[in-house]
Amino acid sequence: MKADTLITGISQLVTASGNGPKRGKEMRELKIIQRAAIAIVSGVIVWTGKESEWKGEAEIVVDAGHRAVVPGLVDPHTHAVWAGDRLADFEARTSGLSYEEILAAGGGIRSTIRATAAASQDELVALGKPRIDSLIASGATTIEVKSGYGFTPAAELAMLETIQVISQISPARIVPTLLIHVPPVSAANRPSYISEVCEELIPEVARRKLATAIDVFVEKEAWQIAEAEQFLEHAKRHHLAIKLHSDQFHSIGGVELGVRFGALSADHLEASGPDQIAELAASSTIATILPGVSIHLGIPAAPGRKLIDAGAAVAVGTDLNPGSSPLFSTSEALALSVRLNGLTAQEALVAGTINAACALGLKDIGRLEASCSADFLVLHGSDWRELVYTLGRNAVRDVWIGGKRVQE
Amino acid sequence: MKADTLITGISQLVTASGNGPKRGKEMRELKIIQRAAIAIVSGVIVWTGKESEWKGEAEIVVDAGHRAVVPGLVDPHTHAVWAGDRLADFEARTSGLSYEEILAAGGGIRSTIRATAAASQDELVALGKPRIDSLIASGATTIEVKSGYGFTPAAELAMLETIQVISQISPARIVPTLLIHVPPVSAANRPSYISEVCEELIPEVARRKLATAIDVFVEKEAWQIAEAEQFLEHAKRHHLAIKLHSDQFHSIGGVELGVRFGALSADHLEASGPDQIAELAASSTIATILPGVSIHLGIPAAPGRKLIDAGAAVAVGTDLNPGSSPLFSTSEALALSVRLNGLTAQEALVAGTINAACALGLKDIGRLEASCSADFLVLHGSDWRELVYTLGRNAVRDVWIGGKRVQE
């Protein structure tokens, strides 16, 4: 065998193994190869194994210096493109107001929507790109980015176009999602807005391939089940995959709706109870939990432990956004999921790699095995557990995407 | 007036004002100067004010680029020198064991003591220095470092000597503390160990000025009140200041003991109740809280909000250590104190600057006013609140210590 690049000197190569999401106990089953090597051809892994067992040739050999290697992280839930800041909200909340009170009062998300609408594409790219770079530095090699601060169909399209521009200039794989986020302020305007989204926005997004999935914020203060159902039906008709913001503050049926529509993922789940956990465990829908929101807003942590114990497939993301999760590190999201959601270190790694990839419908990333994209991280230390153990410091040394080192 | 260095282009200069700790409501009173400048002579601030009001000359002018400036952070509680790792403990805990169970079983701290005892001074410096560098990068300009993994008097002296070496090669001001940490395993050996510490270790540490304060771990599984009292009496006789680890798991009288001895600070306080809060509020002892421990161990957060509301002076530190707080960022400790301990952004800044300085008995740091050391941070953004708002990314751009830029 002849490789373009051979990575040697890997103290531990640590990865989930085999295609598809890992559920329940499977989330603790990692493949660990000591003194490993990775062979790469044209950006794709062609072989992994013990370094001593490599029999081929390689054009370039890169020594990882007896450091641990894990798959590139997949951040399956971000809102990384926004303008303005929410520092005033942050101050208001730390003096006692709840996120929902700020939302209901027309502050919160709506102030971000106004600022984002007022910004040019160049400005939004200049603001969004460094945030994506922070996530990459923290280990993310694939990053989902949602629209949703656009509000009007035209503004949503503009947001997706901005995400496309960032995608073109970023070394990471960017996965765009059309997010139907906040309803019109006046209830009277909801039906016409829903029509516009269903009849114009969704078809155009699908036609221009500006997003691979739709996401709807299902919540007492946002979209109701019957409304969300209309969005999902139209999205399905146009072959968009489905994701849902559900059970963040109230469990009003978002999980059940998502499962019924075969959603890729149901995200948040802080307010999910035994029924929702059982629904997810019995479904193909990934349960994506977002510990940054719990730490930032002080809301209960999603029941990660219970979801896994029930047999669900759990993924973890940053939910990077200015209002409810200013968390700029995908690896720190994993570290927080161990502390806040009761995941083990092994489960956190699976949640941030293969399961997060499945939450985006991607099969060629999230694990280090032949035929997968050569997206991997060289850590500073020789023990992979430092990735989820360390707080407030980046455990990631080198980031490789598609066989190329993009950060060292 | 003639300055060596003039810092201009400061969007906001944000600082506590006036000498001494800030208590209760005073912790929300920040002095904010818009479009400010700082004049420095020989590493000391000689003037601050609006840039337009500076009338003097300056040899060097440094433009902060319309960025916010805050005082250098003071990390008043770290155990930054250790060998070995606690990744196995971390795995054990995330599979259900408690910190105290691991401690009682002879694991936990004792494994760090064994590894630290086995390491040479060179090895400990090589391990400790990068950790101090991480704290500096996160904004710490003064850092307390405790001994306490030495156990035998000779090994404690060696640890303090190691801290002295790190102090000499670090740009930060390092404040060494003699920590009497873990008792002998056998109860029969406690009296002789106490004698050794009181009759030999404390006098020698004081004579050689290897530490400015003593600290004792008062806890059910560590030192009892009557034992701690002996250490404190001897320390007082030798003019060492006093600090205490108290109320981390159980409130067994550590706070009351500290207050009675006029301690600089009582640290941890996770298990403190109304009586301990009232004691601290009525005393000169700083209440130092350590949110890294709460997030890492999942123990209750110290009652920061209640302490301030009662009128206490609260400080915040990382408690950087491998077992209970692998938190390598002093600014993230402040960010966590807002989320976990209920501090406002203003209170967190005061807790991490002037109050933390007072917890170390230092008067010339922790605020940006004439006659203070020119220790300050230039943030990435123009709004100082990003320092405590941002999670998982360093909001600190440049770190200045004693009028010199040590990181940019």
Q: Which helices and strands occur, and which strands form pairs?
A:
Two copies of one chain form a homodimer.
Chain A: E1 2-15, E2 31-41, E3 44-50, E4 57-71, E5 73-75, H1 87-94, H2 99-104, H3 109-118, H4 121-137, E6 140-146, H5 153-169, E7 173-180, H6 190-207, E8 213-217, H7 225-237, E9 241-246, H8 254-260, E10 265-268, H9 274-281, E11 286-289, H10 291-297, H11 304-310, E12 314-316, H12 330-340, H13 345-352, H14 354-359, E13 376-379, H15 386-389, E14 396-401, E15 404-407
Parallel strand pairs in A: 1-4, 5-6, 6-7, 7-8, 8-9, 9-10, 10-11, 11-12
Antiparallel strand pairs in A: 1-2, 2-3, 4-13, 13-14, 14-15
Helix pairs in contact in A: 4-5, 5-6, 6-7, 9-11, 10-12, 12-13
Tags for this entry?
408 residues; TIM Barrel; alpha/beta; eight-stranded parallel beta sheet; Urease, subunit C, domain 1; 15 helices; 2 domains; seven-stranded mixed beta sheet; homodimer
What does this structure look like?
Chain A has 408 residues and is α/β, with parallel strands linked by helices. Helix content of chain A is 36%, strand content 25%. Chain A folds into two domains: 2-71 and 364-405, Urease, subunit C, domain 1; 74-359, TIM Barrel (Alpha-Beta Barrel). Chain A contains 15 helices and 15 strands. Chains A and B meet through helix 1, helix 10 and helix 12 of A and helix 1, helix 10 and helix 12 of B.
